[in-house]
Amino acid sequence: MQLIRMKRLPIPDIYTECEWIVRFAMMERNRSGKPFCTVPFDHTLEAQAMGGRVRYGDGTAGPRACDYICQSLEEVEKLPGIDIENGRMRETLEAGRILRESGYEVLFQISGPFTIWNTLIDIKSIFKGIRKEPNRMEKLFGRMEAELLGLIGAVRRSGVRFFSYADSAGGMRILGPHMMEWATEYFTYGFLKKSEELLGKDGIMMLCPQTAYALKDMGYAQTEEITLPETMSYGNACLFLPGRAKFVGQICINRQNQILEDRKIQTIALK
Amino acid sequence: MSLKEELLKRMSDGVVDMEEDEVAEAAQEFIDSGFPAFEGIMNGLIDGMNRTSVLFEEEEYFVTDVLLCSDAMYAGLNVLKPYLPEESGDNKKKAVIGVVEGDTHDIGKNLVKIMMETAGFQMIDLGRDVPLQKFVDTAKEEQADLVCLSTLMTTTMGGMKTVIELLKDAGIRDQVKVMVGGGPVSQSFAAKIGADGYSQNAVEAVRLAKDLLQTAS
Questions:
Q1: Which of A81, A108, B47, B80 sits CB 3.0–4.6 Å from B12 for a disulfide?
Q2: Distance between CA atoms of A214 and A27, rounded to whole angstroms?
Q3: DSSP letters of A49-108?
Q4: Where is the B12-binding N-terminal domain (chain B) (predicted)?
Q5: What is the pTM of this model?
């Protein structure tokens, strides 16, 4: 936001127009000292590509949900899938491709189902559905899995190698252990396992530490350790991983400049 | 157990068990049997929410559980409320609550609102992504005792400080207490921006509000 104010960058163009997305991602990379150009800049992209309404904000706050477009689970079930061919999603995918072709590493931020639905419906309806109608919710999560896998495929085709995955609206402090277990069992593990194939030989997914912990705690994953050639930041250490691992989840991507003093990075192997 | 006790227990248990239909049914039976609505609310529904608060504090229940318990409580409240005698509500402490501009994460705010309502506060909920000036205007119009600000994002935390400054500019800072909360917010942040208090969760928020306004628990 500071950068937007300082440089007087145009809103909403920096979120909606490929050319501006590229410029903003490069500026943000240079300012932050991170090794990646990170796109998108917010967590409403997937929901918007499913029909959600987004307010782009101003120099003080970024894009966020407007009013909910769904009032019931029935309406969520009837939503279209993630449209990767049009609008801001298409522009963002294209920006990723351009950045890659210009030699930058790109980190594409993927949001989890709770975060996506949080833009589309009062999230309480989702929580209630899990408790009262788990079979119905399994189907809804299954559909979300297909949509997100489709998105990952499209991002990979644009040449991007690095992904992050987090679900801020579905964190442990919100869901509690029982619902977190349910979500990990019926969504997260299966989704990531299928993502593994799409990541291919050199794709890397940087998981939110909460997600990584839930997977390990439930026995779906184990930690492995890779020794780095020298002391480096977590972000730079991830650049060292293509071909050596598929998942990491040691540190939040927002703190990727943190130095790994012991020259070791913990990777995650799904079972 | 008398019929009244049995129905009160069904309402209370229904709230704890998140069974909306069961609570609404028991509340209707309570009214049909000629029992006073106020008693049903206090000794049935609120009792259930108080038990829920204890479970939340003991980490048996989590945010999602409390939200669903509150849905059950409101299902009962919808049945009982029309049978309450008219009351002005003048003696209730009034609080304006909302998520500051730029942020749409309202789960924590909703939880605080529910818990404070249960504890007897009159809550004016401005919702999420609330323009900062609106907190001040509403507090002024409603002669609120408290302003409760929530955010989950670091990028919007600064808005809390702005609200406090706007309250000063409007000349009402001395008339309202300001409470802040949310993921990135801390006691030291609250002190730094000149808020009157910070709470880590919804149960603490009720205690803090009572402390700040020195109301009986």
A1: B47
A2: 34
A3: TTT--EE---SSS--EE-S-S-SSHHHHHT------SSHHHHHHHHHHHHHHHTT-EEEE
A4: 1-92
A5: 0.86
* CA–CA gap between residue B210 and residue B215 (Å, rounded): 5
Is the interface score ipTM higher than 0.85? no
Which numeric CATH code is attached to B94-213?
3.40.50.280
Q: In which residue ranges of chain A is pLDDT below 70?
A: none
pLDDT tens across B103-149, in order? 888 888 988 998 898 889 999 999 999 999 999 999 999 999 999 99
B17–A contact, CB cutoff 8 A: no
CB–CB contacts below 8 A, A to B: 62
The predicted-structure confidence for B164-178, as pLDDT tens digits, reads as follows: 999 999 999 999 999
In this complex, do A60 and B152 lie within 8 Å of one another by their Cβ atoms? no
Contacts B152 to A, Cβ<8 Å: 168
DSSP A195-236: HHHHHTTT-EEEE-HHHHHHHHHTTSEEEEEEE-SS-EEHHH
- DSSP per-residue codes, B39-90: HHIIIIIIHHHHHHHHHHHTTSS-HHHHHHHHHHHHHHHHHHGGGSPP---T
Query: Domain locations in chain B?
Result: 3-83, 94-213
